[in-house]
Design a protein that fits this description.
Elements lengths: L5 E3 L6 E7 L5 E12 L5 E5 L3 E4 L2 E4 L3 E9 L9 E9 L3 H6 L6 E8 L8 E8 L4 E8 L5 E9 L7 E4 L4 E3 L4 E7 L8 E8 L2 E10 L2
Length: about 220
């Protein structure tokens, strides 16, 4: 599927998505739009929405062929902060797959952002150490008006500044106005007043020296 992320603006509020079927059989797909927010604990919350339209909403992709999906709004949101959505594409099983009892079905989740002019992320980081579990809890609060994608977080050793003590795996988005948490196992007990982390983001690599919050 291309693209793997959609960025819309008040000036460019429509997009075309292409879904290619590499299989030798036709694939029936359904498309649903969801408003994407994050709860207080950082978990993603998806709510069905009719604001964002995907046309056609259901279609069959022939073998080794491509389906074009047109994406746009009923009316572009009038907002000062970024609106986040998820487009979920789900394969609908046919009768043969249902009768087999076991079917591995395709499900794709595409992030869609509607970003007004001058919107930007404003990350604020904090850390604390769980000395019982030897885990570093990292928190990022996005006080801005646009998302930031955190691809990896590297925790640097407090006694060897060039050594990576631990790191996260897998990317996460922090939406505008949200807080996301990472629990990073350290592998050993450490005691420090400050911790250095290096964040690998969609806007480049940034280093922070953070005071350790008391537990």
């Amino acid at each position: 599927m291309t693209p793997t992320r959609v960025d819309l603006t008040p000036i460019d509020n429509r997009q075309v998505i292409e879904l290619h079927n590499n299989d030798s059989s036709p694939v029936l797909m359904e498309v649903q739009s969801f408003l994407w927010t994050q709860e207080d604990d950082g978990q993603d919350l998806l709510s069905p929405t009719e604001e964002l339209l995907a046309v056609p909403p259901i279609f069959t992709v022939p073998p080794n062929d491509t389906q074009t999906i047109r994406l746009g709004f009923r009316a572009p949101p009038d907002v000062s902060s970024e609106q986040s959505y998820r487009l979920i594409l789900t394969q609908v099983p046919n009768e043969a797959e249902l009768s087999d009892g076991i079917a591995v079905l395709l499900r794709l989740s595409l992030p869609v952002f509607y970003t007004p002019r001058d919107a930007e992320a404003r990350p604020e980081w904090s850390v604390s150490i769980d000395s019982v579990l030897d885990t570093l809890e990292v928190r990022m609060t996005n006080n801005g008006t646009a998302n930031q994608q955190i691809r990896r977080i590297f925790v640097m050793s407090p006694d060897r500044p060039d050594e990576v003590l631990a790191a996260t795996e897998g990317a996460r988005y922090v939406l505008a106005g949200s807080t996301v948490y990472w629990g990073i196992p350290l592998g050993r007990s450490i005691s420090a007043d400050e911790i250095t982390i290096v964040t690998e983001t969609d806007r480049g690599e940034i280093q922070y020296v953070l005071s350790v919050d008391p537990q």
